[in-house]
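FW: tagging you since you asked about this chain on Friday. Here's the raw sequence from the shared folder, copied in full. Didn't touch anything.
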Amino acid sequence: MLKNKIYKYFFNEILKNFITILLTFTALAWVVRAVNFLDLMVEDGYSSLIYFKYSILNISTIISRFTPLAFLLSLTISIVKFERQQELLILWTTGLTKLKIVNIFLLIGFLITLFQLILSSFINPFLLNKSRSLLSSSEPIEINNVLKSNDFNAAFHGVTFYIEEKNSNNELLNVFIKDSEGKLSTIVDEVDGKKNSTIFAKKGFVKNDKLILFNGMIQSLGKENKIKNILFERTELSLASISPRTIKHPKIQETSSFSLLECAFDLNINLNKKKCSKNFKKETAQTLSRRMGTPLYIPLVSIITSFLLIHRKEKTNNFLKKYILFILSFITLVLSEILLRYTSLSSLMTFLYFIIPLSATFLFYIYIFKKIMTERVVK
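HL: got it, structure written out here
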């Protein structure tokens, strides 16, 4: 009964440290990323609500990025803390085995691996796809927030704006617009159906998704390659058809793992053959390796860190050993990122990326098992 309470205490302490470190890293990284996402409002004209929702939906990807490092730090900090407070020494004198503690570390590693697999393979693609859909189905952009004085704005498909001045009443002075795709409906379109036009105006303002211009000229290229000019005192341009340049189609990171597996194994149920090309398959192999292979390095980290338990109190190199094992564990995580880049080269590299952490974890566990048994015999 006492042993179970001790094991539960170890489990809870490591898990508590892991959650604290992970949430701290996630909060800091999310603030930095949220600042980068400000372009959605400043450059693309999305509302603050869309910006906030989009930022929130990207938190899960940050969590998955920091999970392995947070686990390494929590495990190392916990072991050092237990040792400094003489808790490990008390455990060994009461008859508890080091192998049992190693198994607890390994169990926590497998649980966090499962958490990482679920997060990266299912939750992240779903939320990223949701965030992309949020941009596609959002309300009309607030163009007044996008247009600035003395700035060429090319944030919209086929339309470029230049405003010489924008006063405190949101009135636009000396307006220049280049509409190369006919996104803005003008009187020229009604006259000869031309879609390529340039618009100048001395004054204008935005009201009810319309750009109202005064005292200007619409210049277009006619059917006979002749420039046609039309002067106006007042005209209205509909802004309903313009859209920001923000990518709205799902990227491979936002594609579900099931669809990627179908492409990788040539099932092609949801992905057509044109989309599932050779280059796309290479990206698919790397993406699936990141989602399903990278978490397998977490148990390996727990085994390497467990070597901190194997030492004798009188040895003088224990202090240095802590740093060596931490650096070795950190290098393991770095190597997992480096090797990930080569998984797209061939099926063999992808297979090796998955099998290396599993094999290394098994071999290190056998070694640490023998080492602990040898210590017990010596004692």
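FW: The chain has two domains: 2-138+249-378, 143-238.
HL: agreed, and The first helix runs from residue 2 to 36.
FW: great, closing this out.
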